[in-house]
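sry for the spam today, last one i promise. struct tokens for design, 285 residues
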């Protein structure tokens, strides 16, 4: 986990008993170099011997995104058949990939800013996969060797900008605050089977998404292998694996977020998030 104000978060750790502690500065932050140099296993060793005696994180500190801003956020579209259907699209034969700007990335409890001019801001609870080791053209069989762990991610989407304005989906996926991550990274040892996790999302207390990752069309090892064929995945990169049915676009009539709405979401073992929707500041366009 990472704690502190936006832009000055410090890395920490939640121990198995739930205690949250700060870690020695010598570990650095949770960035590409940390994962590339085997930081997770060093941290695990440290936690076993020193964790309980480490200074506790003070209560009330903001929880930031659990990793430094990644080099890439690669999203997978239409990866649950019920969501493909509600979107009026065919189930894909190969993974549908798109990028999300890394400037959308933020903490799990930060406000969602509905961008100026948006009328179709929508939610998407997703299992995020964090890369632990540089991955270039890796096989499905070896794919888990390249995974550090998993995070909860809300892939906020502006549907008009994504679907009605031509070009790539990236326009509707990339506004500031559109990528809340966390509250923590669970290591792959913590989550031995990412293919059997429940995921859910509520808007103003009403359950709208209820899915399970066993319904993924393309599972975690397939995605890591597939994406690594086309680009090198760096340690700390995030793959967001797609969302199940129940997004606002799928309602009849569609439902979108407006200022004052409260969004809550969670995945087994990956914690929960809460975002309050607020109006973004009018840009000088
Ligand atoms: Zn998505």
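last one done:
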């Amino acid at each position: 986990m990472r704690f502190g104000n936006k832009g000055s978060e410090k890395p920490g750790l939640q121990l198995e008993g739930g205690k949250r502690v700060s870690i020695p500065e010598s570990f650095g932050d949770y960035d590409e170099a940390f994962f590339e140099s085997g930081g997770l296993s060093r941290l695990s060793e440290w936690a076993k011997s020193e964790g309980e005696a480490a200074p506790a994180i003070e209560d009330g500190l903001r929880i930031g995104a659990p990793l430094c801003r990644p080099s890439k956020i690669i999203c997978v579209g239409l990866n649950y058949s019920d969501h493909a259907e509600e979107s009026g699209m065919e189930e894909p034969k190969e993974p549908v990939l798109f990028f999300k700007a890394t400037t959308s990335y933020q903490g799990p409890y930060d406000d969602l800013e509905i961008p100026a001019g948006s009328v179709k801001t929508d939610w998407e609870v997703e299992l995020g996969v964090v890369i632990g080791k540089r991955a270039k053209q890796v096989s499905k069989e070896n794919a888990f060797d390249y995974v550090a762990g998993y995070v909860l991610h809300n892939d906020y989407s502006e549907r008009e900008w994504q679907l009605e304005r031509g070009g790539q989906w990236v326009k509707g996926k990339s506004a500031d605050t559109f990528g809340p991550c966390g509250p923590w990274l669970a290591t792959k040892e913590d989550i031995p089977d990412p293919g059997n996790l429940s995921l859910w999302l509520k808007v103003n207390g009403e359950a709208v998404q209820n899915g399970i990752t066993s319904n993924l069309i393309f599972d975690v090892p397939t995605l890591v292998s597939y994406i690594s064929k086309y680009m090198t995945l760096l340690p700390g990169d995030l793959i967001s694996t797609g969302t199940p049915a129940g997004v606002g676009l799928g309602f009849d009539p569609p439902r979108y977020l407006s200022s004052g709405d409260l969004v809550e979401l969670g995945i087994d073992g990956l914690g929960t998030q809460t975002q309050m929707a607020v109006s973004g500041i009018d840009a000088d366009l």
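The CA atoms of residues 141 and 278 lie 44 Å apart. ok im logging off now
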